[in-house]
Amino acid sequence: MCSFNMIYLTSCIYVSSISNAIISDYLSCVALTKALLPSWEKKQSSIDVKSTPPMIINTNSISGKFGCPVRTSYTGAKHAIMGWFDSFRIEQIIAGHPIDVLQVVLGPTRTNIAHNSVTVSKDTSFKGSDSNTDDGLEVDFVAKTVMSAAFAREKEIWLANKKELFLLYLNQYAPELCYRYMLKLAKQYAVED
Question: Is residue 8 classed exposed, middle or buried when 0-12, 13-18 and 19+ CB atoms within 10 A define those classes?
Answer without folding.
Answer: middle
